[in-house]
Design brief:
362 residues, alpha/beta, 6-stranded mixed sheet, single chain
């Protein structure tokens, strides 16, 4: 496999309480200069391999690139994107199935089903159908555990919020922004939304190399319950965009629609990250800001036991969700064995070569 070290990595979707939460919609654009290739095919048909080879070519050409990893299999890729969004290749199958919005104009569908032997594939038809159904069932079960965990984490955050001064938190964040952001630009900043962590078959998986690649300085907001960090990150996000700075905001996989956990500002080489026991961050902090600065400890003490229970029980449920996803991964591996013998990988490689010809020069 090609060496993909040194390329920022993210997730663009995650198993969440209300189902699979996807931000793959961000990869679609009406830009006439853009090119988007939608890979279609079953498990084991070579989609991730094609993506890794494309990423290697982009790296070789010196193009700024992002890797999008798969939460169901963290060794596999779901997409490769140039940082300007003008060249995209993605796995357009479930759970992030996608169809062209501007067929042939912007997107092109690349079907790997043209590379398999139908007769050979049909030999495992009954087995494959059973495995597909079992894989879906296990992912649905994982989401139910995540849903239950979310209720407990939300309870801990609400209890903590009663003791947190929203005004003090926002004021502290605003002071740092004023010091760090410099002169305000005349235009509004642009935002990319990503995930830096997700519930996977390996537990809560954190893409630790990305902050190191994007930032020279990182402010850590230490917050076990998430009440203060939510206010802090919302303030940083809003101020950065108002200053005309382009940002990458990373959403919480448990509360993807409501909560931002990290904000990165690549042009300043600056980051803001939420730190707690669930986030095993390896980057070295520039400065750690503790949520207790904004917390009335006497008020918090009244709820200490309930908060502790909620966080512990929530993490136990997340571990159960991960266990379901491990089983799902094993099922998926068996599904791949149904497809691999039916594939002509020489034809798959030709598909890769056709896409590679379209890669822009550096």
């Amino acid at each position: 496999m090609p060496d993909l070290n040194g390329i920022p990595s993210f997730f663009l979707g995650a198993n969440a309480p209300k189902g699979y939460y996807s931000r793959f919609d961000q990869l679609f654009s009406s830009s006439p200069e853009g090119k988007c290739f939608l890979l279609k095919g079953g498990p084991g048909t070579g989609k991730s391999t094609v993506l890794k080879k494309i990423a290697a070519v982009l790296k070789e050409k010196g193009l700024s690139t992002e890797l999008i990893f798969c939460t169901a299999d963290t060794d596999s890729l779901d997409a490769v994107i140039t940082s300007d969004g003008k060249f995209v290749v993605l796995d357009a199958t479930l759970p992030h199935a996608a169809e062209p919005k501007y067929p042939g104009i912007y997107e092109r569908t690349v079907s790997l089903s043209e590379c398999w032997n139908e007769e050979k594939l049909s030999e495992n038809k009954r087995k494959a159908i059973k495995l597909f159904d079992e894989n879906r069932r296990l992912h649905e079960e994982a989401r139910r555990y995540i849903f239950a965990a979310a209720g407990l984490f939300d309870e801990a955050a609400k209890l903590s919020a009663e003791a947190v001064s929203a005004e003090k938190t926002a004021r502290a964040a605003a002071r740092i922004c004023l010091r760090e952001f410099g002169k305000k630009k005349n235009s509004q900043g642009k935002e990319k939304q990503r995930f830096l962590s997700a519930v996977t078959d390996k537990g809560v998986f954190f893409l630790n190399e990305t902050p190191k690649l994007l930032c020279e300085r990182i402010y850590f907001i230490s917050d076990e319950c998430g009440a203060a960090s939510r206010i802090f990150m919302n303030t940083v996000r809003k101020r950065a965009l108002e200053h005309g700075l382009d940002i990458i905001s990373c959403r919480c996989p448990i509360f993807p629609a409501e909560k931002i956990e990290h904000v990165f500002i690549p042009e300043l080489r600056l980051g803001f990250m939420t730190m707690n026991r669930r986030h095993k961050i390896e980057a070295v902090p520039y400065r750690i800001i503790h949520s207790r600065r904004f917390t009335d400890e006497k008020k918090l003490k009244k709820h200490k036991l309930r908060i502790r229970f909620a966080l512990r029980a929530g993490m136990n449920l997340i571990e159960e969700a991960s266990s379901c996803m491990r089983e799902a991964k094993e099922v998926h591996d068996e599904l791949e064995k149904c497809y691999i013998p039916a594939m002509d990988f020489a034809k798959v490689n030709k598909k890769f070569e056709e896409i590679a010809k379209e890669i822009p020069t550096g």
